Amino acid sequence: MKKILLALLILGAGAIASARLSLLANQSRTSATKSRAECARLTSQMDELAATATDLRAQVEAKKTQLAVTPVPAVGGSDAASALSGGSSKDGRRATPAELLRRLGIGWNSSADYVLVSKAALKAIYLRGIDEKGVFTPTACGILALTPAERATIEAAFKRAEAEHTEWVKTAVQRVEPAGDIVADYRLPANPNLAERIKPEGEALLSETLGSERAGLIPGYAGAWLFGHGNLGATAIRFTVRRHPDGQQSPLWWQIEGGNSGSSDKIRSSDFPDVFRPIFPGGWRDLAQREGFALPDDFE
Q: Other CB atoms closer than 10 Å to residue 164's CB: what's the count?
């Protein structure tokens, strides 16, 4: 009986081992099949890439051959090439930059809309490229080659800065009792913390959006906007309206003083200082009503 049981156990173990070996063999065959398929796919990709590389090399060689046999067109006359290589003008003088530009057909009178200037000259040219609402002028858009997305990003940043500064102005403005020839006197203290936070954020956005060269032009283009918005709190500002005592000039004139700059003029309906517009939305009429003075007869 024991011998029979032992024989059964041996047979059962053998069957299990045989089944296990069969399973392992099937798995090995399946894995080998997948590996061969993956190898075939990669080999096909390598063949395609090699064919593409061969085609590109052929195109490059064809372009080189074409450039080698293509004559360089004459530009602006036979002496332009000499000038480009440092040659002289017809009378023996060394060609000036203005002469060279004229010969190349890109001089001052070559276009009714454009003139060629160097990057160095462009930095020295004053341009009011951003209006009082923080919007780029068409000229600035052309010079900076702004895309619609770039323009929208930067103008939105100007709007955010203006809104934040406006909220501060509403709470910080100070009225001073008029005296003497002064009929209105308002002050804005400096807020360096506000300016030191807004300006670096704006500079970082400009550099990220436009790159360093184009971004470097924006502060100059935005000079009038910055002054009209109190330099975003960087300097204290005084706004006064004065009366001319002699009666020989315009009866009322206004003055803005801030930092090392300022402006003044007689009162006109269209030139109320933007930085105080949040306090007097109606401009001169609101201020005159608040301070009790009459606007000039020629105000309109």
A: 15
pLDDT digits (tens, 9 = 90+) for 84-138: 555 555 555 666 777 777 777 777 777 777 777 778 888 888 888 998 889 999 9
pTM to 2 decimal places:
0.60
Closest to 276 measured CA to CA, from 258, 250, 299, 252: 258
- CA geometry: angle 14, 18, 22, nearest 5 deg: 175
- For residue 265, which phi and psi values (nearest 5 degrees)? -175, 170
HSE of 299, CA atoms in CB hemisphere, 13 A: 14
Segment 23-77, tens digit of pLDDT: 666 666 777 677 777 777 878 777 787 888 787 788 878 777 776 665 544 444 4
Domain assignments of the chain as residue spans, ordered by start: 138-291
SS3 (DSSP) at 201: helix
CA distances (Å), origin 79, targets 89, 106, 109: 7, 15, 20
Residue of 294, 281, 75 whose CA lies nearest to 184: 294
Q: What is the Cα–Cα distance from 81 to 79, expressed in whole angstroms? A: 6
Give the Cα separation of 169 and 146 in Å (integer): 32
The pLDDT value recorded for residue 28 is 65
Instruction: Please answer whether residues 269 and 283 qualify as being in contact, where contact means their C-beta atoms are separated by less than 8 angstroms.
Output: yes
Residue with the two structure tokens 């436009």: 210
SS3 256: strand
- Residue 276 exposure: Cα atoms within 13 Å on the Cβ side: 29
Q: What does the alpha-carbon distance between residue 202 and residue 133 come to, in Å, rounded to a whole number?
A: 16
